[in-house]
Design goal:
With 396 residues, the chain is an alpha/beta fold. It is built from 14 helices and twelve strands. The chain folds into two domains: 37-261, Type I PLP-dependent aspartate aminotransferase-like (Major domain) (Aspartate Aminotransferase, domain 2, 3-Layer(aba) Sandwich); 262-395, Aspartate Aminotransferase, domain 1. The chain has helices at 4-7, 37-42, 59-71, 83-94, 109-121, 134-140, 163-176, 231-244, 250-259, 263-282, 301-307, 325-334, 356-359, 380-395, and strands spanning 76-80, 100-104, 125-129, 145-151, 184-188, 206-210, 224-228, 287-291, 314-319, 339-340, 350-354, 370-374. The strands form two sheets. A seven-stranded mixed beta sheet has the order 1-7-6-5-4-2-3, sandwiched between helices. Strands 8-9-12-11-10 form a five-stranded mixed beta sheet, covered by helices on one side. Strand 4, helix 7 and strand 5 form a beta-alpha-beta unit. It binds pyridoxal-5'-phosphate.
């Protein structure tokens, strides 16, 4: 198989007869015409082998689905209007009243909120587990568990979990209750993006992504994906997706398709820059810990080294507990190139302070403030200088 950077550019898209160009076409439709009544009666919206209605796909969205599924090493892809809607789609596709979902304590926050408020209102319970302890996952599994979320690494704190070991605990539970609805595993693969590792080779059933991050890369599109290898899991996701009426706009799909060819290069550039800055940050006064899977003392470093070939643009710095939050806020406000804002993997570097006490339900080993950095595509030299000038604000 060719390298990812090549596969991102050479792909099976078929342009219209007589018109070959670099970019795939952009097709827009609500209405799609049928050639005759017989076709109108027999084309089935549940079967994506043909076009029936804009909501169920166009040549543009089918092309993007093929691209994302292939990049991630999966077979099928369903597109949704945001990363968060990909999380909620998976929850709704696999959970019914009386079921339970397990979520890592360090998972993406809004997915936890969805479980705590919306799923709870439908009689679906949730429990948190420590993603760094597969035995804790095994302990939290109950006869009601139907879905287990995974995320690598954890949001904000970037601990890299042992996905094969976590999946193995779920598979053991499934063997012990043969004949019942099996527990499905789903990985939030936004960080890996199909670049850093192959989620399916690590054993997960479903890989969900915020295409908002790396595949878009422009900080100007919101989109999500749900990728599967298994036909029946795909069908379950697809039917819930269609019943919910979710669709993505052609111009948004176009923006993601346009930025995919540079994804491997962007990932690599931001990886290199983030490692360099994370290492530098670790040596600065007032910084007690830097979290980044490639740093040897970051949680899960050995697992990351075993299972991944790259790391995304994120690192977090934990400050000395003697530094008040107001000084940490002043540091963030002093940064000129790192802008304050959510999301990541775009061209501009970002940072945001987090209050870990309000995020975690389980023990967090640090009491100092935390700032997460997302490295963009600026010069590392300039970004380091920006951090250096702003660190002065910590001491003032
Ligand atoms: C950003 C993000 C999401 C949500 O994506 P949106 O498109 O912003 O809704 C989900 N999971 C992770 C890990 C993310 O970073």
């Amino acid at each position: 198989m060719k390298d990812l950077s090549t596969r991102l550019i050479h792909h099976p898209y078929k342009p219209p007869e007589g018109f070959e160009a670099v970019a795939p076409g952009v097709h827009k439709a609500s209405t799609v015409f049928f050639p005759n009544v017989q076709a109108l009666r027999t084309y089935d919206w549940k079967d994506k082998s043909g076009y029936t209605y804009g909501l169920h796909g166009t040549p543009t969205t089918f092309t993007l689905e093929e691209r994302i599924a292939t990049i991630e090493g999966g077979k099928h892809c369903v597109l949704v209007p945001s990363g968060l809607s990909a999380v909620t789609l998976v929850d709704m596709a696999f959970l019914r009243s009386g079921d339970e979902v397990l979520i890592p304590d360090n998972a993406y926050g809004p997915g936890k909120s969805f479980a705590a408020v919306e799923l709870a209102a439908w009689g679906i319970t949730h429990r948190y587990f420590d993603a760094m302890d597969p035995d804790d996952l095994a302990r939290q599994l109950s006869p009601a568990t139907r879905l287990v979320w995974l995320e690598a690494p954890g949001s904000i704190t970037l601990e890299f979990p042992d996905i094969p070991a976590l999946v193995a605990r779920v598979q053991q539970a499934n063997q012990a209750r043969a004949g019942q609805r099996p527990i499905v595993t789903v990985l939030d693969n936004t960080w890996g993006a199909g670049v850093a590792f192959n989620a399916f080779d690590l054993g997960v059933d479903i890989s969900m992504q915020a295409l908002t991050k790396y595949p878009s890369g422009g900080a100007d599109v919101l989109m999500g994906s749900v990728v599967t290898r298994d036909e029946s899991l795909h069908r379950q996701v697809l039917l819930t997706h269609m019943r919910l009426g979710l669709a993505v706009a052609a111009n948004d799909a176009e923006l993601v398709l346009r930025n995919l060819p540079t994804m491997a290069l962007r990932y690599e550039a931001q990886d290199t820059a983030a490692r360099e800055l994370a290492q530098w940050m670790q040596a600065q006064p007032g910084v007690v810990k830097v979290l980044h899977p490639a740093l040897p003392d970051s949680p899960g470093h050995a697992t990351w080294k075993r299972d991944a070939t790259a790391a995304a643009c994120l690192f977090s710095a934990v400050f000395d507990p003697s530094i008040p939050q107001s000084r940490i806020d002043a540091f963030c406000d002093s940064l000129k190139l790192f802008r304050l804002g959510w999301s990541w993997a775009g061209p501009i570097s970002l940072c945001a302070p987090y209050d870990m006490a309000s995020i975690r339900t389980r023990a967090w080993p640090h009491t100092g403030g935390l700032v997460r950095f997302a490295v963009g595509l600026e010069s590392v030299h300039d970004l380091r200088a920006d951090l250096a000038q702003a660190l002065g604000a910590l001491q003032a």
